[in-house]
Amino acid sequence: MQRTKSSQIISAILFAIFAVGGVNAAGPLMMWNREQRIPYRWDVSTPVKVYTDSGPFEVVPSQYTPIPNEVADAAVAFSIGQWSNVETSSFKAEIAGDFESIGLPDINSPANAGLVIGPDNGGGVHVIYDQDGSVMAQFLGAPSSVLGISQPEWADENTGTITESWVIVNSTLRWVGDDQLQNFRAIFTHEFGHAINLAHSQTNGAILQYRDAKGPLSCATLPYSTAITLDDRETMYPFLNVRPGTGNGLQMSTVNVSDDKTSVSNLYPAPGYPETRGSITGRILRTDGTTGITGVNVIARNIDNPYADSISAMSGDYVRVAENNDGTFTINGLTPGARYALYNDVIVQGGFPTKQPDYFPEGEEFYNGENESGNGITDDRCQMTPIVATAGSVIQADITMNSVQGAPKFTPLIGGMVLNSISSDGNIIAGAPASGGGTYRYTEADGHQLLNDTSGSFFSTMSRDGSFFSSETMNAANKRVASILQYPGGSWQQLPVPQVALPAVAAPSDYVTTAYGVAEYGRAVAGGVSVDSNGPLPGEVGRIRPFIWTPENGSRELPVPAGTRNAKPNNISADGSTVLGWYDFPTSGTTRYGVRWVNGEFLPFTTPAMYVGEANVSTPDGSVILGRNAGPRLEAWYWTREKGVQLLGRLGAINVSSANAVSDDGQVISGFGGSVAEFPGDVAGHRAFLWTPELGFVNFDNFLRAQGTAFDGWLINSTNSMTPDGTKFVGSGYAPNLKGLAGWIIDMQTVNICHAPPGNPTNTKTITVPFRGDMGDHLKHGDTIGFCTE
């Protein structure tokens, strides 16, 4: 037997309280032969031998009752018994002894953990009690919240037979009062599942943990009961709370729901399985009905017992190659005679052994039988065709993702990023981490790149041509300094600190400078200079002054009125002629006044007749300028040389509206508006808006939904940039289940219009027209946005 360490190292199988762990749906953790779809398995012709740590279970804090090793060993025996007693599985395991019985010492520190984790110790599953958490933290580098880790480590590569695994549990996370480890033993059950090569699943756990939808996200009613209990939570869900009384350790310590039973039975089938049960097989397909998608979670729920009898699988879980357009899934273990609702499901949290899309814009949907297609109009995603399970029968059920022809396309880009720039050709996207700390660049060819990583840097921008970036880097005095980068091939160049008219209380090296925009081809950068927060300006710490940098003239302060407290740029025009921003006074409180500096001249927007807030962005030559909070209703605004300041509108009755992006001709404008009171449940408290002269000021979310664009669970909270022709937008929003800020792209070449032929207003039909030009013409003669209603 060629016994070697498995070539597949599992790096994402941490099982943590309220932290991300690896997730996969009721499938194998590691594959031995992908072409033949054979996973690694233990030889179960005899029970798998399990060996437990011979030292103390824990180093006992004063408030704890000591746990004898007999109690810990009994918890291990209980947990392996859960996997050994599934009637449709042939898997069996038993405790064969402790470490001392096979010549191993008590594993009690990082110094000797390598005696178990790493070497071949003759086979079996080795369970380490990490009595003080040091093995987890120092040997494995795991966060303190991780409850357990497991890995199949040695296998016969000729047969795919696992020969040795290890399990480690963090004993320090045992709760007071759990003296018999009745809650804590859930960790053993879960990690032992990994040791026998089971991956995670998402079937009911996300519903209970994150209030995930109990069916397709957009479906208001479901064809089965919505009552779910903790007892329905699957053991292989990747999050666990072992606190007695308020946690879920008791429920997750048992293997009692169909999802877990099926997963172990698929790997280790008992005689007659799966033929004694029903099966569904199929593919998850793109809207073309041909191309498969690997990595989509699929759930089958018994309509009469939807949670205890629910089973998940993941498309491509036995292939693991996203690029091969596989998309296949198989769900076994169905109750004969039961009716099942089948649907595709977005994973809420976690990584996957299967490479997968974190989100699919076409949305979740039920399998719809003969009506299943990629047409989002004729195939109602909430219409469900039941599948009746038959023993020994495999039912084919493909799910084709839905889209609506002609609708704008929404593409989520990356979590944790705020996108604020798009190149003229629409191929390069840029932004910054939402938490601050770098410059982000994305193209389809290069993927995701972080061009710098400066802690505390919250603003990074890209030039219109996509070749220059502005951000901050750290100088020798450990201060943040405005910097510029030419990409590719260049390095970050720190811009000189301008001589500013601030009190001489600090040397220039103590100033912090920030870049707020870079002109096309790197011809200019708009920036702000402020005394660092440690500077000695009493009551005025952090006073800001604007400056502009050019390669020819270096950094020059821009003028401000006498008595100004702060003045800061927000952006710069593509030709470098116009800097856009705001200023305030010691008596103005939080009120900011919009301003533009044209070729260095200070030109405010506010007049005695109208207050005008911050200026944000402009067309390339500065002839059209947009901003936020103008007039008595604090509306988004735009300015032209001919008409001056014009008010755009706001969303609802709540103050605050900001125009952030504009097409080169000034005829498409977008940004955000609203507040938490206007949009309850939205952490950001606002929504993106869209404006054209014919459309007016509308909620971008509502506009997209009327088009049939799918972006299930997303909140589109701000548009931050667009291409010159106004057909491609980038911005930020909140991903499904409000996991945090994420970036998105909307490509809106065409839109759907309910068209009424001239002279026949009742004979309406839905048509697809170009967004620019044709949409406006149709709206002018009375057509409406979206689909005609019957």
Write out key terms for the chains shown.
mainly beta; Immunoglobulin-like; eight-stranded mixed beta sheet; four-stranded mixed beta sheet; 9 helices; 9% helix; globular
Short description:
The protein has 790 residues and is mainly β.
Q: Report, as a whole number of angstroms, the end-to-end distance.
A: 70 Å
Please state the structural category. Answer: mainly beta
The whole-angstrom Rg is 30 Å
The averaged pLDDT comes out at 88
Proportion of β residues?
A: 25-35%
DSSP summary, beta strand count? 49
User: Which regions have little confidence, pLDDT < 50, spanning 5+ residues?
Assistant: 5-25, 532-541
Q: State the helix count.
A: 9
**Share of helix, binned:** under 10%
Give the overall form.
globular
Main β-sheet description: 8 strands, mixed
What does this structure look like?
- The protein is mainly beta and 790 residues long.
- Among the domains are: 1-201 and 236-265, no CATH class; 274-402, Sandwich (Immunoglobulin-like), CATH 2.60.40.10.
- Strands 1, 2, 5, 6, 7, 8, 9 and 10 form an eight-stranded mixed β-sheet that branches. Strands 11, 14, 17 and 18 form a four-stranded mixed β-sheet that branches. A four-stranded antiparallel β-sheet has the order 13-12-15-16.
- Helix 1 (69-84) crosses helix 4 (185-195).
- Residues 5-25 and 532-541 have low confidence and may be disordered.
